Each structure stands twice: as C-alpha cells, then as structure tokens.
Amino acid sequence: MGERFKDRVVAITGAGGGLGRSIAALLAGEGARLALFDRDARRLAETAAVCPTSIQVVGDARSAADIERFAAEARAAFGPVEMLLPAAGVLGKAGAAIDNTEADFDRLFAINVKGPWLACKAFVPQMREVGRGAIVLFSSTAGLAGSPTLSLYSASKGAITLLTEAMALNHAADNIRVNCIAPGTIEGPMTDESFRLAGDAQAQAARRSLMLSGIPLRRFGEPGEIAAAVAYLLSDDAAFTTGIALPVDGGRLI
Does residue 61 carry a pLDDT above 90? Predict the structure, then answer.
C-alpha cells in the first residue's frame, strides 16, 4: 500500500462500525496515526487491533464532554489532529417523518447531526494549530434526495450535506477542507437493519430486489469502496476540493 497518510494524525468517531473500521484499516495501512472513538468498547478494540498505531477512547458521540475528552487524549497521544472523520450514525425508524416520536427525532439528530458538529468544534482548533486540515462528514444518497421510507434519517443527512457546504466556506481561510461522502446502499450492519425494518423474510427479499433495481450497476457497494473514496477526499490528491457531497452509489442518483 501507499504512504499518503504517513504520520498524519486522524480522528475517527464511530470507529467500531463497519464503515469506520474499513476506513481506519485503510488509513492505518497507509501510515496514519489514529485516534479511534466509539461507544462500544468491544467493537472499538476490534478496530484498534487492525490499526497498529492507534489509541482507543470509549464515549458517546452526542456528549460534548466525551468528545472534548477524546480530542484531549488524541492530542496527548499524537499531537494536534489534522484530519477528522465523524462516522458515528444511526438509521432511526422507518416511516413517514410525522409518524416518528419526539424522542425518535431527538435521538436521530443528536447522533447524526449534533455529533459531527461537536467533533468539528473540538478538532478544528487543533487543525488551525497545524495550519491545515481535512474533514470528511458522512451524508447519504438519502441526504441528497428525500427518502419516503427513512424520512427522518434523510432529513438528518440532508443537514449534513448543507453543514458541509457551510463549514467549507467557514474554514477555507484556515486551509481546512470540508467535504462529505454520500454512500448509497452498502453491504453491512446498517443495510441489514434497513431490510429488517421491512418485515418478514418475504418483505425483506422484495425490498432488496426493489433497491437493486434502482442501481444501474446492479449491486450494493462494499465498505472498502467507501473507504477508498473517503481516503481520496482526505488526501493531498484532493487538495483543491472542498464543499462537495460525493455520491458513491452505483449510479443510483443519475
């Protein structure tokens, strides 16, 4: 593998998840020093096991105190963080937006929107010290086009798409690039959960068939394909790229 990230310091929330782990492993393989954060200590340790130069911090991405502690421990271990991936996220409940409860709404937006915002607040000051930075937020194709089945999730990811654009403008003068990735349907736990929400086995099979029919490449994506796109946006190869939402969706939104 290459060394695009040799000795670069990267912070990742949601590092115990499928996408977070795939991204962390790719960056570690290219020489990055990683600060890994997740609420699930077991899954976090599994990710750290494939990332030789890393630290683990257990906490809640919705908690300002936990994220500030994460930022402090990352800095103590490696020095100022230069790159940030706030990958913690949840699907929430299926159905129309107004059929969700207030508690459903609050939880989804706290994790999917407040969490990334807290991470940016904690780590942008460290990037300013370095004199450069790169942030990749996590939107979704559902954040670029409304979803009738995951309406609140769609709204939360739409917020991330516009937060990306706003922050790219906020921090261009700091030499900090802010982009977001917009995955389509990716094989893994979150997609499996979306199928479970459809109902019994027959309903799940019908949902899978319907979703595949809307993807020109006729398959779902793999976590490694998202990791590769994220690594590009973080890397110096994308030095003149900021404020974009990059769909990685097999052509679904064409």
Answer: yes
- Domain borders along the chain are 9-184+222-241, 186-220
pLDDT in tens, 62-100: 999 999 999 999 999 999 999 999 999 999 998 899 999
pLDDT category of residue 200 using cuts at 50, 70 and 90: confident
pLDDT at 193: 79
Across the strands, what pairs with 177? 134
> Which of these is catalytic: 62, 153, 168, 244?
153
Contacts of 47 by beta carbon, 8 Å cutoff, 6+ apart: 15, 16, 20, 21, 24, 25, 36, 38, 54
Handedness of CA 112, 114, 118, 124 (dihedral sign): positive
What's the maximum distance between 2 C-alpha atoms anywhere in the chain? 55
Q: Is 232 an annotated catalytic residue?
A: no
Domain 9-184+222-241 listed as CATH 3.40.50.720? yes
Distances (CA, A) of 211 to 94, 159, 223: 15, 24, 18
The Cα–Cα gap between 112 and 144 comes to 15
pLDDT at residue 198 tops 80? no
pTM: 0.94
User: Which pLDDT score is estimated for 1?
Assistant: 62
- Are 153 and 112 in contact by the 8 Å Cβ rule? The answer is yes
